[in-house]
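With this grant's support, we have settled on a layout for protein records. An illustrative entry appears below exactly as we store it:
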Amino acid sequence: MNFSRRSIERCIITLTIFLCTFPSLSAQFQTVGRAAYNTANSTYTLTQDTCHIVGAVWSYAKADLSQPFEVDFELNFGSNNGTGINDGGDGITFVFHNDPRGFKTMGCSGGVLGYGNKNSCMSGISPSIGWEWDTHSNSILDPPLANGADHLMCIMDGDIAYTGQGDFGFGQYQNIGELENGQPHKIRITWTPGINEVNIYMNRVLRRTERVNIAGHIGTNMAYWGWTASTWGETNLQTVKVNTQPFPIELGDFYGEKFQDEVQLSWLTMSEINNDYFVVERSIDGQAFEAIGEIVGAGTTEDMQIYSFTDRDLRIGTHQYRLRQVDFDGVTSYSPVIKISIEATDLSTMAVIYPNQTPDVYNLLLKDSRHSHHLTIFDLQGRILLDTDLEGEVHQLLTHHWSNGLYFAHITSTNGEGEEQIKFVVD
């Protein structure tokens, strides 16, 4: 396959954001309140182990929510966990927002985690959508967890109060074990536009999936993003360390070309790190994606790699394709979505007939399900065995009363745009 230098230069995109746009890590983020950067270990302190404080850290590079977004970081919630005098508190949030205060945005201290409103402090972050790792039991705000267990919950517009089941999963929570163990917890957050999906991994385990239109909620595709934390009477040293290592792959050209009865997908990578394999995914309705193929990756390499995959199972309509890249440790990334429009003239046949796994059943697949069709099936003697109208895409032909042999299916589109006769054998 030939790639011109122009196409490579023109179409280079990355699956993930690279946090090396600025000359140093400390120059990439704005600190607010008591937050501070620690050059010795390249971490941001969100709160010191002190009462009644709040801190926030915001990226200067906004997240473009029209594109895939991914960030890796480590959260350390301290070691005060209720085994002594100090029960520890209060927790950390990750937030997308469009608050008018921009990089200076910060909420209140105490149980609202530097994100929400509290008593006379009415500075909750809004409009926003975020996720809280809550480490302190506040009976008024928290879900009914036994013994005030640490939990992960989706939050919005400066409100972290538990309200039960809600839209997009808001108010739903998960117990996530003891966070205040003095150890870093590895977090990866991914955003996939088109389907508006957020995935949150903790210590390499997928813990939450949210379908939420963040851009629609906050009113822009360009979102501020970062972390907040706070303490009140109970305290902890709470920190975040942003992963500045290269992400798994740097994706170059990803495009599709349609030919008679097939779409050929091609992509190249400029470099790969621990890349196990790609899963090719397709959506017909623009909502649900299904895996249609798998391609082995190159592991770790700085050389350009070229990949391709052919989809021969086409329908009339818009096909959306994306790549799901999987690391050796099982963590995934997604490519942008590309769209290929399939017209009736792109297909050589209107329908396909093939055996079902169930005995004496054959499937009839109509490639254009936008219109109704008329089906007539007859045998070699011209006897009509079935004469019916069809709506939809997949239909079953029950052949247990038919003799083994050759049959003919005559299919016409009721809008007059197509007519076809298919031979098939029942055995």
Summary: Residues 1-25, 165-171 have pLDDT under 50 and may be disordered. The longest strand covers residues 262-283. The chain has two helices and 29 strands. The chain has three domains: 19-242, 249-344, 349-426.
